[in-house]
Amino acid sequence: MSKSLKKSIPIEKIVIGMSASIKKVIEFDDIKLFAKLSGDTNAIHLDKEYAANSKYKKNIAHGLMSSSYFSGIFGTQLPGEGSIYTYQSLKFKRPIYVGDEVEARVIVSNIDIDKKRVKFTTQCLVKSKICIDGEAEISIP
């Protein structure tokens, strides 16, 4: 017997313009954990002295770490449990630094009820400035 998806929004109740977001402060410990998980140990993320001498002047978060917050939104809020990523594009426009509060938000841009697919605009913002911009498509159960 399959479990009912109680924490998901049926595609028939999703409308263009519907949105969801989360906010998270980027901590150096998070960057270290992501580096370990991803294998991306680039000094710009992990070495404070190296970063201080770079064009960024301090450590920056992995772009894919910040953009991974979209997955959490899709799987828990909009559309919710059982949804599956099928596509994601990303443009990295500004660095995200240790200590920045990132708002990751997704906005419904298109709905295909027959194919059970929903397209989203995806953005990570810091102080209302877009740092990561993209699009995603999610398959709904």
Question: How would you summarize this macromolecular structure in one to three sentences?
Answer:
The protein has 141 residues and is an alpha+beta fold. The chain has helices spanning 28-38, 43-46, 48-52, 63-67, 69-76; strands at residues 19-25, 84-92, 101-112, 117-126, 129-139. The protein has 5 helices and 5 strands; from the N terminus they run βαααααββββ.
Sequence-ordered SSE layout with sheet pairings:
Elements: E1 19-25, H1 28-38, H2 43-46, H3 48-52, H4 63-67, H5 69-76, E2 84-92, E3 101-112, E4 117-126, E5 129-139
Antiparallel strand pairs: 1-3, 2-5, 3-4, 4-5
Query: CATH-wise, what's the superfamily of the domain at 15-26 and 62-139?
Result: Hotdog Thioesterase
Per DSSP, what share of the residues sits in E-state strands of 2 or more residues?
A: 25-35%
Just give the CATH class of the domain at 15-26 and 62-139.
Alpha Beta
Helix vs. strand class: alpha+beta
Helix content: 10-25%
Which spans have pLDDT < 50 for at least 5 consecutive residues?
none
**How are the strands ordered across the major sheet?**
1-3-4-5-2
Write down the CATH topology of the domain at 15-26 and 62-139: Thiol Ester Dehydrase, Chain A
The description of the largest β-sheet is:
5 strands, antiparallel
Radius of gyration: 17 Å
